[in-house]
Design brief:
The protein contains eight helices and six strands, in the order E-H-E-H-H-E-H-E-H-E-H-E-H-H. By secondary structure, it is an alpha/beta fold. A six-stranded parallel beta sheet has the order 3-2-1-4-5-6, sandwiched between helices. Helix 1 runs parallel beside helix 3 and helix 1 packs parallel to helix 7. The chain is globular, with a radius of gyration of 15 Å. The two termini are 24 Å apart.
């Protein structure tokens, strides 16, 4: 399953590399839909942090997913989120979201304690400060989470070339690369 954590409008502009996080999260959501992976999405304290990013929200709506509002930092400590995750019944959880050292890290550590396999896409998670993100990625890796990249996950989901799904997945990879290039050209721009 794919877990999309708290990609919200008021916090995103303050996130290091937020354009890349939005682009990679979008690619993960599109590919999850392509391979019919269930998606769980959350928002934290919308009154203060705002709604889900518009681009991400549109992709989630297209995938038939409505974000769940949570109060706990860890998705696993929120009863509504935990109930939906149980209903989905998956052992591997692909993770994207913010902030890496708070909600993402606490969720990943809880997923590990529940015997699940979190797969953290390093380029699809971030924090306000790059150092917090790096330390969080190290801690999650040391705790037993798989830390990899979005592109690696997309190709693992695809498994083989030459299929219609492969061609669609390549288009997703191209869109992510184009969004990254735009972000480098205009760091203040939004994907």
């Amino acid at each position: 399953m794919l877990l999309v954590i708290d990609l919200q409008t008021r916090l995103l502009p303050h996130i290091d590399g937020h354009d890349e996080v939005i682009a990679t999260a979008g690619g993960l959501i599109e590919t999850a839909g392509l391979y019919r992976l269930p998606i769980l999405a959350t928002v934290q304290y919308t009154r203060g942090l705002g709604p889900m990013d518009e681009h991400v929200a549109g992709l989630l709506t297209s995938a038939g997913t409505t974000p769940i509002e949570k109060a706990a930092f860890s998705v696993c400590r929120d009863e509504a989120c935990r109930a939906q995750a149980r209903q989905l019944g998956r052992d591997q959880v692909i993770v994207t979201g913010i902030e890496a050292h708070v909600c993402v890290q606490q969720t990943v550590l809880d997923l590990l304690s529940m015997g699940l396999e979190p797969i953290v896409c390093a380029d699809a998670v971030s924090s306000r400060r790059a150092r917090d993100r790096e330390v969080a990625l190290d801690r999650m890796r040391q705790a037993g989470a798989v830390v990899t990249t979005t592109e690696a996950v997309l190709f693992e989901l695809c498994e083989v070339s030459g299929t219609p799904e492969f061609k669609q997945m390549l288009a997703v990879v191209k869109r992510i690369d184009e969004a990254r290039a735009r972000g480098r050209q205009d760091p203040a721009g939004v994907v």
